[in-house]
Every structure is written in structure tokens, then in C-alpha cells.
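A further point concerns the way the authors explain their paired sequence and structure data. The central task, working out the C-alpha cells from the amino acid sequence alone, is never made concrete. I therefore recommend that a typical entry be quoted early in the introduction. An entry of this sort, consisting of the sequence and the corresponding C-alpha cells, reads as follows:
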Amino acid sequence: MTARKGRPAIGSSQQASSPSSTASSTPAGSSRARGAGVARGAARDRQALPDFTRPALAPSLLAAVVLLACVAFLDSSAFVFARWGVTVLALIVLVFAVRGRVWWAAVLTAAVAVCWNPVVVLPIPGQLWAALQLVAAALFIVVGITVKVPRAAD
């Protein structure tokens, strides 16, 4: 289906489906009704969108899942992959925290990135690591919910 000049494609959802616009006998009347519907829809979309987004929520929830799932791997060599994942996700959340100007979250996620860094390993005993895994998972959930980045003005 190809688009006609100045109009949406035939059969698209952008066509006016109200009886008033299709029953109009003049083309000017139908385009006026369609234009008013588009203007109302655009105004409704602007009102429905909040002034901020939560871009850190998805990576922080993913990091929390990795942290909780990998508590069982603390003593194995597979824990290195969990460290890589947590470090990368912490740095992603750090960027969003800086963009949202939530400085306490930026400091805490930077600390998590340093502690879980697989290149320079910190010598922390196993039981303390297990506790830190749970604390870091809770931290990621709280940070993901609280970090709000302002929406760009269009």
C-alpha cells in the first residue's frame, strides 16, 4: 500500500474513522475534521507524557537480577562473568545518574563498579561478598526507581 500525496497510506490507522468526517460531502470539510482530530490527538499525547524518563530502571533491574542469581557462583570461576556484567551495568546506571543529577546514586554506583571490577580484584571474603551482593541488588533497585532524567524539549 502506497501513500498518496499529502495523505497517510490507504488502510492505515491514521485515517479518520469517525462518521462525521466520512459523511461530509466536501473534501474541505473532511480535511478540516481530520485536522481537528489530529490536533486533539497531539494535545492529548503531550498531556499524557511526563516531563521525565527513568532510563536507569531497566539496567538497574537487570543488574539486580544478575547479582541475586550469581550469589551461587561466588566460589567458582564463572563469577568473573558476573563481575563483568555488574560492572558494565553499574557504569551504565552511573551515566544515567549523572544525566539526572542524582549525585548520591552516582557515587554509590561508582563504588559498585569499583568493587565488582574484574580487572583489579578486591580481596573480600565469601560471606561478605554474599551480603554485598544482596545490598548492591537493593541499591540498584532503589537507584533505578529514583533516577529521573528530564525529557528533552521537542
About this structure: Residues 81 and 118 are 8 Å apart (CA to CA). Confidence is low (pLDDT under 50) at residues 21-25. The chain has six helices and two strands.
